[in-house]
Amino acid sequence: MPSQREFLAQTGFLTFAHNSKDVNYFELAEMQAASIKRYMPAVPVAVVADAETLLSAKTSKYFDKVICLEVDQRQDHGVFANEMQAFNLTPFKETIKLESDLVLTRNILHWIYGFRHHNILFPNKIVNFRNETVVDTTYRNFFRLNNLPNIYTGIYYFRFCAEASNFFKIVTNLFLNWNKHKNCWRSSPDLASTDVVFAIAARLYGEEQCTNPALSYPTMVHMKGALNDMPADSDWTDHLYYQLSQNNLNVGFYKQVYPFHYYKKSWRLCDES
């Protein structure tokens, strides 16, 4: 069993925010937290950030806990490497982990009843803005070549238990030793992304232990161009109308009912009602 710790709450949302030269990820995390509180005001939200990011961050009423990262792995192991610390840093017994460039569009807390049949659970299918299941594999060449599980890390669930701890130990080993591990896979990227590392970890851990094709969740709307019948490198905000009105997010005149992975880092969610 992992070592015991004190928890802030039974269930909560967790995200990471590391500002870059071009993107204020803490601001994106705050927009995400505001969307969570819009639909689930009682559910706590925690953000993990490095010391430099926190120096320039303003105090936010939307975060219930701000965690300063003690060991920053990005310089030695890539910009995504701190994600391997999610299990050790979460202040919740049950964690819904979100990427920072994602907002919620409704209350999804009922998903927890399905989550609790698993120790860790990833989406293995996502949808486009029309709520159609994505079948396009433009961005998944590495997954196809290596027959990896088609999981996504924009949103996933894990509980505080030995099984989830073991999964994150695999993730940690992959991140810390990527220069060695990448030689075992066809057309491996030089930079280990979360989707790639977690998919390999799912293969090694057992795909059937961390996905459930019978469940329609967790899932998300992914706004990368090719997934929405646009050119692969296009900006969806140049093609689609969007509006938040009376707590409903509409994109291209379609109401968004799943967590919305907007991907375009300059996009902002503004209530026009």
What does this structure look like?
It is a single chain. The protein is 27% helix and 17% strand. With 273 residues, it is α/β, with parallel strands linked by helices. The protein has a single domain, classed as Alpha-Beta Complex (Spore Coat Polysaccharide Biosynthesis Protein SpsA, Chain A), CATH 3.90.550.10. Helix 7 (162-176) crosses helix 9. The radius of gyration is 18 Å and the shape is globular.
CATH class: Alpha Beta
Regions with pLDDT < 50 over 5+ consecutive residues?
none
The major sheet is characterized as: 6 strands, mixed
Q: What's the CATH topology name?
A: Spore Coat Polysaccharide Biosynthesis Protein SpsA, Chain A
User: C-alpha Rg, in Å?
Assistant: 18 Å
Query: What is the general shape?
Result: globular
Count the beta strands.
Answer: 11
Number of domains: 1
Which secondary-structure class do the elements indicate? Answer: alpha/beta
CATH architecture: Alpha-Beta Complex
Intertermini distance: 49 Å
What string, H for helix and E for strand, traces the elements in order?
A: EHEHEHHEHEHEHHHHEEEEE
Tell me the β content.
15-25%
Tell me roughly what share of residues is in helical segments. 25-40%
The CATH homologous superfamily:
Spore Coat Polysaccharide Biosynthesis Protein SpsA, Chain A
Number of H- or I-type helical stretches: 10
